[in-house]
């Protein structure tokens, strides 16, 4: 659970089981559980084992969740790294869907030890606060983890605030102070949970901190009268930050904005108890307070934004002869092959957001009749002027027809199909449409440099790319395209947004042979990042959702009687 520095932590790969609230579409055979509520889990540690020689450890917490069917552990998320401390209180939280009727297994582990628990254990502990010892090096005490859960309010407001301070206590021997603020929200049991840290302003007793944005849910969980505590510290390189003082307020007080009500005396209780003439250790003033309502993916969908779905299928020879059962393209009359399962799993959910349900379906890496021309961007329905298929069933029919007419060949080039969708996406940048490209492939990419350049260019457009790898091949290059860990770059230019999500289909195959469950797991994971990628484009362009149309009212029919 605790990495000694950022470089030693494993690469980030998000699991969507708890963050996604999307349904499973028409896959009715899977009973899609509806979460009872969403909870925010806060993490603190005490007395961690010190593994650094000349300073304290730089801890990070990584959370893993266990799959429902295959019991495999997948990374859910991670906190920030906190330098030089053995007693971290992490600011970044984990937000999980809580299912009363499911055992939701969690694992916190890495280099110093492991902690296993369930979400129900945390929620069911007194005050929803669970303490457990970290189990690691035999015979050594590795410290304690403290997990706190709080049910989330559905408040969607965020607030932009800025603070300054005046005449803070001088704490540094050779300079002034290096002050920063730490914000805590109070809990129902009277304890406090950290929710924000400002940056450090160096060598001043009169700092002005940068404005910061925080959700009202994180600040007070939607309770406007809940106590908010703010502590003021002087930053020290060795992590032993000096306490200057503190004050309390509430969202309701802060919402008055810049006024005499929002000038706070910073008080150090120890100093106040020792010195009779002590007044304060300076003052902190609220400079600005602006409330914004956070818009969601569904706000855009309700406002009429269409999701345009395009499919691209790998027809290279490495898939094997479609007539042979060993081929990834084998047309088994009794069950879908891996390509068919990936197409159906993702398509049946995405098609619900496309009003005409007409989808372009492309192939790449095949020799086309009659002249044997190799194409990396051909229409599965044989009509390059109109490659649209009617619904996912139409895509499946065109796929099977193409398998009978084209010759599998190569190489595996992605750039042409990415550029194909990018041409359409570049013509619609007003937020009315968003494009999703699903690439299903079996192997190692041949045009990596061109594909990276295409992705960097496409990151400026309203589009996302899902890559599903089928078969047993190594997909190291695909992980590089999935910019979760390091943003994709080409010729020194980095992608503006992370727009690629890659998953190997083999990770989702149900060992009992339940293909419906395999498809549901796959769809949930590959689509999990689409809403945030969609929102990142809309926010960057300043595009607001259109107002939702008024609810439909059926016309009143007046019965006319002839006299």
UniProtKB/TrEMBL annotation:
Domain (VWFA): residue spans on this chain: 308-509
Superkingdom classification of source: Eukaryota
An example Gene Ontology biological process: cellular response to calcium ion
One Pfam assignment: C2
InterPro entries referenced in this protein's UniProt entry, alphabetically: C2_dom, C2_domain_sf, C2B_Copine, Copine, Copine_C, VWF_A, vWFA_dom_sf
Keywords: Calcium, Metal-binding, Repeat
GO MF terms held by the record: calcium-dependent phospholipid binding; metal ion binding
Residue ranges occupied by any C2 domain in the UniProt entry: 141-264
GO-annotated cellular components: plasma membrane
Family statement drawn from the similarity comment of this UniProt entry: Belongs to the copine family.
Name this polypeptide is given: Copine 8
Native organism: Ictidomys tridecemlineatus (Thirteen-lined ground squirrel)
């Amino acid at each position: 659970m605790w990495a000694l520095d950022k470089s030693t932590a494993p690469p980030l790969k998000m699991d969507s089981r708890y963050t996604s609230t999307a349904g499973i579409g028409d896959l009715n055979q899977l009973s899609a559980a509806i979460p009872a509520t969403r909870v925010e889990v806060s993490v603190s540690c005490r007395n961690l084992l010190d593994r650094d020689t000349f300073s304290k450890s730089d801890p990070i917490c990584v959370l893993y969740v266990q799959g429902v069917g295959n019991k495999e552990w997948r990374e859910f998320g991670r906190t920030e790294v906190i330098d030089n401390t053995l007693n971290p209180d992490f600011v970044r939280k984990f937000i999980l869907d809580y299912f009363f009727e499911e055992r939701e297994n969690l694992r916190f582990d890495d280099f110093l030890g492991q902690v296993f628990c369930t979400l129900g254990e945390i929620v069911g502990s007194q005050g929803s606060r669970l303490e457990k010892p970290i189990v690691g090096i035999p015979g050594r005490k590795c410290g304690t983890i403290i997990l706190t859960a709080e049910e989330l309010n559905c408040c969607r407001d965020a607030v932009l605030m800025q603070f300054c301070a005046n005449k803070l206590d001088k704490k540094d021997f050779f300079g002034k102070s290096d002050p920063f603020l730490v914000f805590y929200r109070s809990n129902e049991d009277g304890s406090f949970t950290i929710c924000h840290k400002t940056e450090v302003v160096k060598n001043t007793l009169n700092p002005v901190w940068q404005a910061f944005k925080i959700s009202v849910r994180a600040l007070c969980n939607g309770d406007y009268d809940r106590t908010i505590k703010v502590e003021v510290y002087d930053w020290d390189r060795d992590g032993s930050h000096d306490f200057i003082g503190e004050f309390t307020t509430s969202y309701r007080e802060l919402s008055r904005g810049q006024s005499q009500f929002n000038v706070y005396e910073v008080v150090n209780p120890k100093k106040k108890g020792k010195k009779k003439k002590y007044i304060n250790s300076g003052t902190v003033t609220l400079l600005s307070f602006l409330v914004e309502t956070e818009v969601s993916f569904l706000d855009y969908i309700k406002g009429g934004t269409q999701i345009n779905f395009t499919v691209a299928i790998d027809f290279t020879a490495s898939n094997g002869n479609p007539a042979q059962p060993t081929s990834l393209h084998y047309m088994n009359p009794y069950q879908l092959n891996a390509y068919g399962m990936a197409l159906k799993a993702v398509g049946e959910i995405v098609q619900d957001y496309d009003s005409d349900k007409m989808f372009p379906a492309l192939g790449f890496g095949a020799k086309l009749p009659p002249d044997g021309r190799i194409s990396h961007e051909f229409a599965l329905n044989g009509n390059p002027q109109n490659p649209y298929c009617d619904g996912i069933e139409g895509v499946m029919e065109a796929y099977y027809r193409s398998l009978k007419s084209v010759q599998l060949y190569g190489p595996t080039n992605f750039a042409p199909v990415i550029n194909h969708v990018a041409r359409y996406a570049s013509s619609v940048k007003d937020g009315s449409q968003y494009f999703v490209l699903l690439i299903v492939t079996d192997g190692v990419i041949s045009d990596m440099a061109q594909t990276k350049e295409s992705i960097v260019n496409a990151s400026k457009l309203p589009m996302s790319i899902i890559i599903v790898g089928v078969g047993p091949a190594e997909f190291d290059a695909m992980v590089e395209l999935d910019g979760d860990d390091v943003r994709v770059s080409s010729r020194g230019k980095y992608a503006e947004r992370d727009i690629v999500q890659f998953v190997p289909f083999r990770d989702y195959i149900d060992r009992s042979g339940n293909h419906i469950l395999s498809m549901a797991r796959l769809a949930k994971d590959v689509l999990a990042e689409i809403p945030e990628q969609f929102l990142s484009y809309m926010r960057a362009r300043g595009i607001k959702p259109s107002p939702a149309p008024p609810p439909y009212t059926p016309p009143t029919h007046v019965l006319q009687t002839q006299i």
